[in-house]
Amino acid sequence: MNHDNRNHLFCFGYGYTADYLGHALIDKGWKISGTTRSCEKRDELKSRGIDAHLFDFEKPLLDPLTILEGVTHLLISTPPDDKGDPVFQLHGQDLPFIQSLKWVGYLSTTGVYGDRGGEWVDETSEVRPTSKRGSRRAEAESQWMSLNNEKDFPLHIFRLAGIYGPGRSALDSVRAGVARRIHKPGHVFSRIHVEDIVQVLEASMMNPKAGSIYNLCDSAPAASNEVIEYACELLGRPCPPMVDFDDANLAPITRSFYMDNRRVHNDKIKDELGVKLKYDDFRSGLRGCKDAEDYALAQIKKRGGIPGF
Question: Distance between CA atoms of 10 and 18, rounded to whole angstroms?
Answer without folding.
Answer: 9
